[in-house]
Design a protein that fits this description.
The complex is a heterotrimer of chains A (363), B (309) and C (289). In chain A, 25% of the residues lie in helices and 34% in strands. By secondary structure, chain A is an alpha+beta fold. Chain A folds into two domains: 4-228, 3-Layer(aba) Sandwich (Rossmann fold); 240-351, Nucleic acid-binding proteins (OB fold (Dihydrolipoamide Acetyltransferase, E2P), Beta Barrel), CATH 2.40.50.140. The radius of gyration of chain A is 25 Å and the shape is elongated. The two termini of chain A are 30 Å apart. With 309 residues, chain B is mostly helical. Chain B folds into two domains: 2-64, no CATH class; 99-302, Orthogonal Bundle (MetI-like fold). Chain B is built from 14 helices and no strands. The termini of chain B are far apart. Classes of the chains: A alpha+beta (363), B mainly alpha (309), C mainly alpha (289). At the B-C interface, helix 1, helix 4, helix 5, helix 6 and helix 7 of B face helix 1, helix 3, helix 4, helix 5 and helix 6 of C.
Chain lengths: 363, 309, 289
C-alpha cells in the first residue's frame, strides 16, 4: 500500500504537449479517477505511472521510492487494460499465475494464491478455459484476477469497463468499488465517462488538453467547478451556459429578452468588476419552469421535449440560445409554447469569458 | 538531477546499441550489393588486384560503356583476357548491347503485369463480390497453382510453344508468365476488392448496373492502389523468371531477357567481372528502386500472399 | 453468369499449369530421347523412374536437395527472427530504414543473386577469400565453389542471404499483429525481457513461424537458380538439385522422359509439404458467399 506522487511531469511528443506540468497525489488506499475527454492526457499519465511511457521531465514516486526511469517490471504495480490483454495462449489459471511466475514465486504458493483469487472473483470454474472461450464479463474478472493476485502496491485501470455492455458495466462498477474498498489498494482509474467517475471515485482529477483542470471529491466538483470546462464536463446533462452582459448600474445581468436582477451575494462578488460580458452557468436540474410570468424570470419558448419517464427533459430557446431543463413527467406543454424560467440565485454560476474561471472560485 | 543524467546515459547506450544492430542488418542486406556496385566502377582488370579496393581509386564508367555497346570491347581487354586464359590469341568480340535484354524484359514484364491484372481482376471480382456455385473450389484451383514448381510444367510448355511456332519469341515467355502470376495477383486483388464498401455496389445495382459495368465503373476505379501493388508483384515476378526464359529463347540474343542475358554474359566473358557487375547493377537497379519506393505495398503483398491470408 | 468472370483466368492457369503437369506425368512413362520424335515415342512403363532411382546422381541430388532445404530454412528462420525482433524493437525512425533494407535482397532475381555471389566467392579475387586471408584464418583463398563441401555451403550461404530478410518481413508482420496491450500487460506483470520473449512473444508467434517455415520449404525444395548460376551443379554433380537435373535432362540432354521422372519426384515432395501448408492456411481463404 502506498501513495503515488507525481511531480511536475511533462511529456512532449514532437509537436504535442501530452502532459503539461502535472503535479498530483494519489492517496494511499483510495480510488482516484482520472477523467477527461479523449486525448486529454489521462491515459498518457496512467501509462507514465506504469512505466510504459517515460516522461520528458518530472518525477514519479510510488511510496517513498522514485520510480521514473525504473522499468515497469520493477515497479510492483498491476494494470487492467481496456482490451483486458489476456494472454490468448494461456488458460485462465496460467493467466492469473503469470505475474507470480514472472516474479519467481514458489509453485505451491502460486497455486494457493491463484485459487484464492479465483474464489474472490467467483471464477473457480473457469480456471481451465482459454480466453477465447470466455464472455466479456468473465474476461474482465480474469483481468482483475491477474491484477490482484500479486498484491501490488498500486492498481492502474485503463477504462476497464468500457468494453462491457451497459447493464453489465453497472454491475461490475459496483463490484469493482466493493473489491477496491475491501483490498484497500491505492487505485488509479482512467475513464472518459463522468457518471462512472462520479460513482467510483474517492477523488477525481479532471484533465483537459494535457493539464489538470481540477482535483476534488465528486460532490465538490459538482458544486464548485473551477472553470467552464469542469462545469460542462461534470453532470449530465451538462450545465447550460448563456452569454450575458453585466450592468452595474441596473445591478442586473442582461440577456436577450430578459434582465436578471442580482442579489446581494453576487453584487458583493462583482463589486470591482466593470460592465461587460460574462458567462452565466445553470444546471438543468436547477431551473424551475412555469407557464405563468412572475418578476425576475426569464422568458423562453419550448423547442423540444424528451419524455424520460420520471421527468421530461426540456429544450427551451432564449433568443438564439438553447437551454435544457427538467419538468415533472406529467407537465402539459406544447412545442413553441411560451414558458418562464426561474434561476435560483444559489444555483447560479458566473464565469469570466477570458479566463473561463468561475468568479466564485477561491484557490 | 543525478537520476536524470543517468537516464540520459541509458538513453545514449540504447541509441548506440540500436545503431549498431541497424548497421549490422543494413550491412548484411546491402553489403553484397555494395561489393558488386563498387566492382562495376573499377578499371578493367583492377577488380583482380589484391588487396582489393573497397572503392575504386579511379572510378570509371568504362564497364557500363562496354555492356551498353557504346564502347567496343577493345583489343586491350581481349588480349588481357587472352593473357588470363594463357593464350595470345586475340579474339574480336562483337559489340555488346545490354539494352536489348533490358528492353525485352521491360516488354515481357509490362505485358505480363497488364495481362495478369486483367484476368486476375475479373476473377477476383467474381470471387470477392459475386455469388456462384463452385466459388471456393475455383479459388482453391487458382490459389494452389501458385504453389506448383516451375520444373513440372516447363517441358510440356516448351513443346507447346514449339508446336505453336512461338519459340524464340517474347510471346513464349509472356503467355505462361501471365498464368504463373495469376494466383498471387488474384488473391491480392480479391482481398482488396472485398474491403471496398458494399453499399457502393448495392447503390450501383439499384441504378440498374450489371456486374460487368459495376466491375468497370465502380470496382476498378476504386482499386487503383490494389491494382498497382498486385501489378508490382507480377512485374517483379516475371522480371526475374529464368527457367522458362532460358529454355524458350534458345540462345538467341535478340529475345533474351535480363536474367538469361546476364548468365550468358557471365559465360562468354567469364573474366570480365567489371562488365558482369555493371550488368547486374543495371538489372537490379530498377527492381530495387521499385521495391524501395513501393515498400509498404510490397510488404503487405508479401505477407498477404504467404502467412496472413 | 459470375462464372464468366473467372473462366479466362482458369483457362490460362489450366493451359499453362495444370495441363502441363498431366503432360509431364505422361512423359515420365515414355522414352523421349529426341525432342523432335514425339509420335513414335515408346512407352517404357516405370523404366525412367527405375533408372533415376538407381542412379548415384539421383541419390546425390535428392540428399543435397533435402540438406539444402533443412539448412537454409533453419538458418533463414534464425537470422530472419533475429532481424524481425531487432526491427520491431528499435526506434521507429530506424525501423523505417530496416524495413526498407529488408526488402532489397528479396527484390533481386534469384539468378542475378547467384551471379552476384559468384563474384563474392571468386577463387582469386573474391572478397570472402580475401577477408579470410586478411584475418589470418587461412593461408590461401578457399575454393568456395570448387571444393565439394565448400560449394554446398556456399550455395546455402547465398540462399540464406537472399531469403532471410524475406523471412524477417513475414515474421515482423507476425510480431506486429500481436496486440501492443499484451506486451504492455506482460511488462507491468513483472516479466523481464527474456521471460516476456519466452513466455509471451514466442508462443504467440509460433503459428506464424510454422507457416513461414512451410512456405519457405515449398520453395527451397525446388531450388534451381542458386545451383545453376553459382556452380552449374559442380564440382561434378555435388551441388546438382533435383531441379537442375530435371532441367539438364530436358534441355541439355533432350531426354524428356527421364527429366519428367525427376520433375515428378520434385512435384511429389512439394505436394507433401503443400498439403500441410494448405491445411494450415486454407481456413482463412474465405469470402462472403
Amino acid at each position: 500500500m502506498s501513495e503515488v506522487y507525481v511531480e511536475e511531469v511533462c511529456k512532449q511528443y514532437r509537436e504535442v504537449q501530452a502532459l503539461d506540468n502535472i503535479t498530483c497525489t494519489f492517496e494511499d488506499g483510495q480510488l482516484t479517477v482520472l477523467v477527461g475527454p479523449s486525448g486529454c492526457g489521462k491515459t498518457t499519465l496512467l501509462r507514465t505511472i506504469a512505466g510504459l511511457i517515460e516522461p520528458t521531465s518530472g518525477a514519479i514516486y510510488i511510496g517513498k521510492r522514485r520510480v521514473d526511469g525504473v522499468p515497469p517490471w520493477e515497479r510492483n504495480i498491476a494494470m487492467v487494460f481496456q482490451s483486458y490483454a489476456l494472454y490468448p495462449h494461456m488458460t485462465v489459471f496460467k493467466n492469473i499465475a503469470f505475474p507470480l511466475e514472472a516474479t519467481r514465486t514458489p509453485k505451491d504458493e502460486i497455486k494457493r494464491r491463484v485459487v484464492e483469487t479465483a474464489r474472490i472473483l467467483q471464477i473457480e470454474n473457469l480456471l481451465d478455459r482459454k480466453p477465447r472461450e470466455l464472455s466479456g464479463g468473465q474476461m474482465q474478472r480474469v483481468a482483475l484476477g491477474r491484477a490482484i493476485v500479486r498484491k501490488p502496491e498500486v492498481f492502474l485501470m485503463d477504462e476497464p469497463l468500457s468494453n462491457l455492455d451497459a447493464k453489465l458495466r453497472v454491475v461490475m462498477r459496483a463490484e469493482l468499488k466493493h473489491l477496491q474498498t475491501q483490498l484497500g489498494v491505492t487505485t488509479i482509474y482512467v475513464t472518459h465517462d463522468q457518471a462512472e467517475a462520479m460513482t467510483l471515485a474517492d477523488k477525481l482529477i479532471v484533465m483537459n488538453a494535457g493539464r489538470i483542470q481540477q482535483i476534488g471529491r465528486p460532490e465538490e466538483l459538482y458544486r464548485h467547478p473551477r472553470n467552464i470546462f469542469v462545469a460542462g464536463f461534470i453532470g449530465s446533462p451538462p450545465m447550460n451556459f448563456i452569454e450575458v452582459q453585466y450592468d452595474p448600474t441596473a445591478r442586473a445581468l442582461v440577456g436577450t429578452g430578459f434582465q436578471y436582477p442580482l442579489g446581494p451575494r453576487w453584487l458583493d462578488l462583482l463589486r470591482n468588476r466593470p460592465a461587460g460580458t460574462l458567462i452565466l452557468g445553470i444546471r438543468p436540474e436547477s431551473i424551475q419552469v412555469s407557464n405563468t410570468p412572475s418578476p425576475g424570470v426569464v422568458p423562453a419558448s419550448v423547442y423540444v421535449m424528451e419524455q424520460l419517464g420520471r421527468e421530461i427533459l426540456l429544450d427551451v430557446k432564449i433568443g438564439p440560445q438553447t437551454l435544457r431543463a427538467f419538468v415533472p413527467a406529467d407537465t402539459r406543454l406544447q412545442m413553441g409554447q411560451d414558458v418562464w424560467l426561474q434561476f435560483h440565485e444559489d444555483a447560479l454560476y458566473l464565469f469570466d469569458p477570458e479566463t473561463e474561471v468561475s468568479l466564485s472560485w477561491k484557490e | 538531477m543525478n537520476e536524470q543524467s543517468s537516464n540520459g546515459r541509458r538513453d545514449l547506450k540504447r541509441w548506440v546499441l540500436e545503431g549498431l544492430v541497424t548497421l549490422a542488418i543494413v550491412g548484411f542486406c546491402l553489403g553484397p550489393l555494395y561489393w558488386i556496385f563498387a566492382t562495376s566502377f573499377k578499371q578493367m582488370g583492377t577488380e583482380y588486384v589484391i588487396p582489393p579496393e573497397f572503392w575504386p581509386s579511379r572510378p570509371t564508367l568504362q564497364a557500363y560503356a562496354v555492356i551498353l555497346g557504346i564502347q567496343a570491347p577493345g583489343a586491350e581487354q581481349a588480349s588481357q583476357e587472352g593473357a588470363l586464359k594463357g593464350t595470345t590469341e586475340v579474339k574480336a568480340s562483337p559489340h555488346l548491347n545490354f539494352l536489348i535484354p533490358v528492353r525485352n524484359s521491360l516488354i515481357v514484364s509490362t505485358t505480363v503485369a497488364a495481362g495478369a491484372l486483367l484476368l486476375a481482376s475479373l476473377a477476383a471480382y467474381a470471387i470477392s463480390r459475386l455469388r456462384f456455385r463452385w466459388k471456393i473450389q475455383s479459388l482453391m484451383v487458382l490459389w494452389v497453382a501458385g504453389l506448383l514448381p516451375a520444373v513440372i510444367v516447363i517441358a510440356p510448355t516448351f513443346v507447346l510453344m514449339r508446336s505453336l511456332n512461338l519459340l524464340r519469341t517474347l510471346l513464349a515467355m509472356i503467355l505462361p508468365n501471365i498464368a504463373y502470376n495469376i494466383p498471387l495477383t488474384t488473391w491480392l486483388l480479391a482481398v482488396y476488392f472485398s474491403q471496398l464498401p458494399w453499399e457502393l455496389e448495392d447503390a450501383a445495382k439499384m441504378d440498374g448496373y450489371r456486374p460487368l459495368q459495376i466491375y468497370r465503373k465502380v470496382i476498378l476505379p476504386l482499386s487503383t492502389p490494389g491494382l498497382f501493388s498486385a501489378g508490382i508483384f507480377a512485374f517483379l515476378g516475371s522480371w526475374g523468371e529464368f527457367m522458362l526464359a532460358s529454355a524458350v529463347t534458345m540462345g538467341v540474343m535478340e529475345v533474351q531477357t535480363v536474367p538469361v542475358a546476364i548468365l550468358n554474359l557471365s559465360f562468354e566473358y567469364r573474366y570480365q567481372w567489371t562488365w558482369i557487375s555493371a550488368a547486374i547493377c543495371l538489372s537490379v537497379a530498377l527492381m530495387v528502386l521499385i521495391a524501395l519506393v513501393f515498400q509498404r505495398w510490397v510488404i503487405q503483398g508479401l505477407t498477404a500472399g504467404s502467412v496472413k491470408y | 453468369m459470375a462464372v464468366l468472370f473467372i473462366i479466362p483466368a482458369l483457362i490460362f492457369v489450366t493451359l499453362f499449369m495444370y495441363y502441363p503437369i498431366v503432360q509431364t506425368f505422361i512423359y515420365s512413362f515414355f522414352s523421349l530421347h529426341r525432342t523432335a520424335d514425339w509420335l513414335n515415342a515408346q512407352f517404357v512403363g516405370l523404366q525412367n523412374y527405375i533408372a533415376v532411382m538407381k542412379s548415384e546422381a539421383f541419390r546425390g541430388a535428392f540428399g543435397f536437395t533435402l540438406y539444402y532445404t533443412v539448412m537454409t530454412v533453419a538458418f533463414e528462420l534464425a537470422i530472419g527472427l533475429g532481424m524481425a525482433i531487432a526491427t520491431f524493437s528499435v526506434h521507429p525512425r530506424l525501423r523505417g530504414i530496416l524495413r526498407a533494407v529488408l526488402v532489397v535482397p528479396w527484390a533481386i532475381p534469384p539468378i542475378v543473386s547467384a551471379m552476384l555471389w559468384r563474384w563474392l566467392f571468386h577463387a582469386d579475387a573474391g572478397i570472402f577469400g580475401y577477408l579470410l586471408m586478411a584475418t589470418g584464418l587461412v593461408s590461401r583463398p578457399p575454393a568456395f565453389l570448387t571444393d565439394p563441401t565448400l560449394a554446398v555451403h556456399s550455395i546455402i550461404v547465398a540462399s540464406v542471404w537472399k531469403n532471410a530478410s524475406m523471412m524477417g518481413i513475414l515474421l515482423l508482420a507476425g510480431l506486429a499483429s500481436i496486440p501492443q496491450d499484451i506486451y504492455d500487460a506482460a511488462k507491468v506483470d513483472g516479466a523481464r525481457t527474456w521471460f516476456r520473449f519466452r513466455r509471451v512473444t514466442l508462443p504467440l508467434l509460433l503459428p506464424t513461424i510454422l507457416v513461414t517455415v512451410l512456405f519457405r520449404s515449398l520453395w527451397a525444395l525446388r531450388m534451381f537458380e542458386e545451383s545453376y548460376g553459382l556452380t552449374g551443379g559442380g564440382p561434378g554433380t555435388t551441388t546438382d538439385t533435383l531441379s537442375t537435373f530435371a532441367y539438364k535432362y530436358f534441355f541439355t540432354y533432350a531426354r524428356f522422359g527421364v527429366g519428367s521422372a525427376y520433375a515428378m519426384v520434385i512435384f511429389l515432395m512439394v505436394v507433401m509439404v503443400a498439403i500441410v501448408y494448405v491445411n494450415r492456411v486454407k481456413g482463412n481463404l474465405r469470402f462472403k458467399e
